[in-house]
Amino acid sequence: MLLQIDFKSGTPVYLQLVDQIRHAAASGGLRTGEPLPSIRPLAEELRVNRNTVAKAYAELESQGVIETIPGKGCFLKAVGSPLTKSARNDLVVQEIDRAIVAAHHLQIGDADLISLVKKRLEAFEKKHKATND
Question: How many domains does the chain have?
Fold first, then answer.
């Protein structure tokens, strides 16, 4: 799992970590029971304070995404994870909302936005078929 921080984004670093780990878990990039990187090495790798990583992990634990096993580390929660289909849908809805806001600011109308989405879906399908053949 590759985590990256954008210090210019305006989003707090710990929330960037939370979002990236949630996305990795929802997409299958992080599997149930798989350990998360230890706090200290991850903080050093990302060049952030250890407390920032600890805060992200605490937030994920409060959301029920991960669990901490004393002496062993943090792991993606196996039972009762909120990353169900509805939670994955919520993540996609957030991305759609961002696209809608961007389209609004760029003065792209509803019909044009829907047309663009359909074209992108078709392009994705073609690419997906080509790589699986």
Answer: 2
Q: How far apart are CA 132 and CA 128, in angstroms?
A: 6
CA atoms of 25 and 52, how far apart (whole Å) = 20
Same domain, 52 and 95: no
Show the domain range for 50.
13-76
The upper half-sphere exposure of residue 111, i.e. CA atoms within 13 Å in the direction of its Cβ, equals 0
Bridge-based pairing state of the strands 73-76 and 66-69: antiparallel
Report phi then psi at 47, rounded to 5: 60, 50
Question: Do 22 and 60 reside in the same domain of the chain?
Answer: yes
| pLDDT tens over the chain, length 133 residues | 789 999 999 999 999 999 999 888 877 788 888 899 999 999 999 999 999 999 999 999 998 889 999 999 999 886 555 555 666 677 788 889 989 999 999 999 999 999 999 999 999 898 878 887 7
